[in-house]
């Protein structure tokens, strides 16, 4: 039997500078605080500037949404948010 998975979608501003896959992974673990063991997959949709995060735990996305208010900023190397 397969575990139930939840997907969290992060959307980045179209006008902001592009972010590398490495920077996105670091941001997920440092800012969103998703434990590595809970993440099943990360899919980056570059043209739409979205990141899909599949998670094992059903309560983790809810706790992240409550802690962030559904919004978490990314600070680029040049200081732009």
What does this structure look like?
This protein is about 25% helix and about 25% strand. A 3-stranded antiparallel β-sheet has the order 1-3-2, covered by helices on one side. The chain has helices spanning about 20-30, 60-70, and strands spanning about 5-10, 40-45, 50-55. The protein has 2 helices and 3 strands, in the order E-H-E-E-H. It has one domain (about 5-70). By secondary structure, it is of the alpha+beta class.
Helices and strands, with pairings:
Elements: E1 6-11, H1 21-32, E2 39-45, E3 50-55, H2 60-68
Antiparallel strand pairs: 1-3, 2-3
Summarize the helix and strand pattern as letters.
Answer: EHEEH
The span between the termini is 42 Å
Instruction: Summarize the biggest pleated sheet.
Output: 3 strands, antiparallel
- Domain count: 1
Helix content: 25-40%
Strand order of the largest sheet: 1-3-2
Features:
81 residues, alpha+beta, 3 strands, 26% helix, globular
Q: What can be said about this structure in brief?
A:
With 81 residues, this protein is an alpha+beta fold. It is built from 2 helices and 3 strands; from the N terminus they run E-H-E-E-H. It starts with 5 loop residues before the first strand and ends in a 13-residue tail after the last helix.
